[in-house]
């Protein structure tokens, strides 16, 4: 914790991780490393452990076996939350308080100013973040009045205002109208081009293979981890999803 991680160091490193909520592990033999600037999607059928893996990565769960680190620190002691922008599923945002887009984005500055007032510079950063996600014209709109895609952009702007260098998105296009999905992925791509690391949990395999550069295919264990093009040509998809096809059909 004394010296910050070098850019070349992995942002995320999992080594032989195993975890179960009860005695039976729901993820096991997980070793992976994600470097700054990557654009990675975690795919897998329902119940394959995607959310559990994300929680292990973010330090919200501790491995039963093995180790997890974030920005070079054990994940469970990492507490510089501003470095991570988390965008939850649209559905879970419906209970959000009726605050405006600008207020949401200003929250991104809070870790940087403590309980103090936002300075002119902070407000400028907020305005820039709104512009980057194309939401300047909606700054005074209440979040509850936004479309799904606009709402996700507002939460991305909050992360940008916080100067996050890792953006974690959990099925971000659930509830987003089809016409807005492509533009949403274009935004992620441009953020990635600027060096922001993107980690995506996604159910929509088409969207993932079109946009992510690296795929981690999970079904309790890692079935595939590599470039997206190799994944498309591999049989990992059939192997990982095959046994769970009935589970997917049921939900
Ligand atoms: P995914 O995100 O791929 O759908 P999850 O990580 O949510 O998968 O779940 C993996 C497995 O762990 C599933 O069998 C699920 O029922 C179980 N599980 C998830 N969360 C809990 C929990 N809080 N307590 C007990 N079991 C859980």
TrEMBL record:
<feature type="compositionally biased region" description="Low complexity">
    <location>
        <begin position="1"/>
        <end position="9"/>
    </location>
</feature>
<dbReference type="GO" id="GO:0005524">
    <property type="term" value="F:ATP binding"/>
</dbReference>
<keyword id="KW-0067">ATP-binding</keyword>
<dbReference type="InterPro" id="IPR003593">
    <property type="entry name" value="AAA+_ATPase"/>
</dbReference>
<protein>
    <submittedName>
        <fullName>Metal ABC transporter ATP-binding protein</fullName>
    </submittedName>
</protein>
<dbReference type="Pfam" id="PF00005">
    <property type="entry name" value="ABC_tran"/>
</dbReference>
<keyword id="KW-0813">Transport</keyword>
<dbReference type="InterPro" id="IPR003439">
    <property type="entry name" value="ABC_transporter-like_ATP-bd"/>
</dbReference>
<dbReference type="InterPro" id="IPR050153">
    <property type="entry name" value="Metal_Ion_Import_ABC"/>
</dbReference>
<keyword id="KW-0547">Nucleotide-binding</keyword>
<comment type="similarity">
    <text>Belongs to the ABC transporter superfamily.</text>
</comment>
<feature type="domain" description="ABC transporter">
    <location>
        <begin position="12"/>
        <end position="245"/>
    </location>
</feature>
<dbReference type="InterPro" id="IPR027417">
    <property type="entry name" value="P-loop_NTPase"/>
</dbReference>
<dbReference type="InterPro" id="IPR017871">
    <property type="entry name" value="ABC_transporter-like_CS"/>
</dbReference>
